[in-house]
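Margin note: ligand = adenosine-5'-diphosphate.
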Amino acid sequence: MSAKQVTKIGVLTSGGDAPGMNAAIRAVARTGIYHGLEVYGVMRGYSGMIDDDIFRMESRSVANIIQRGGTILKTARSKEFFEYEGRKKAYENLKRRGIDSLVIIGGDGSFRGAQKFSNEFDIPCIGLPGTIDKDIAGSDFTIGFDTAVNTAVEAIDKVRDTADAHDRLFIVEVMGRDAGYIALHSGIATGAENILIPETKTDIDELVSSLSEKEKRKKLVNLVVVAEGDEFGGGNEIASIIRERLPHLDTRVCILGHIQRGGSPTCLDRLIASRMGYHAVECLLNGKHNVMVGILNNKLHYTPLNSAVKAKQKISDDWLKIVKILAS
Ligand code: ADP
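Resulting structure:
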């Protein structure tokens, strides 16, 4: 905790983009301006800090963006920011403008960078979890997850219609390299037969025998949802195993890909982004520095940036049991 008074806030979006980031930028800008602070938008994440691509934001700079996907500040991954020299350059640009604090909307990688930067140059940083994967501990929600999962549900419902019409088995691959939350939630919500996620060991023999057993008792099976980071690989890899072991099934693959990142944010994502953005500025004003603002059990929850980095959310055994029972 530091007592350093802040007067000029920089806001940036970094790492993977997520719907709802604009709503968070808007909330940071408007809350900052409300409190009489100067707010600066930093373009392209840490790259813009290094290249001095920074502009003063007015209340109107964030008009008409709450409903838009993507991020008006754009986002990027910056190799230079991994190096001390790059971070020093970024600091000098902030210093020249008098920017004395930062709000970073991004994932755990961005928080790792923020923590390092803050330790080195004494710039208070606040993190807002912006990631479609919901893979950060300390918050029940991350900005973008709800939109991504709803996009997946909508797409999977459509796939199911065609699967049903042709009696095909569809393997639908959704995003999630390290975290299976999009697969778990969209799979449950669409009544998938099986859901394969990186957090649990995939028993391929069990998958094949359950598909064939259900087929024998004429249960219509047409949907398996797999996260891209499942240990057996994504949709194509799973489908090729099933085709080999159950050649009589008409097995198809659908990879949803980047559509899950785009689109207008859901109401929930707009709400949490607005709430978190507002509290990010409150934190800076109240001397609560270097934390990630999260929401746990509908209450604000502050996680030190370095812990937000390390931990991942655990998938509860309850969910896994529900998947098994409801698919039987
Ligand atoms: P995300 O924030 O979505 O997890 P990344 O892991 O790609 O995305 O991180 C975004 C950016 O944060 C990186 O491109 C880099 O500039 C910065 N960053 C990540 N990890 C570190 C680190 N250990 N040290 C310094 N900067 C980092």
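The longest helix spans residues 145-166.
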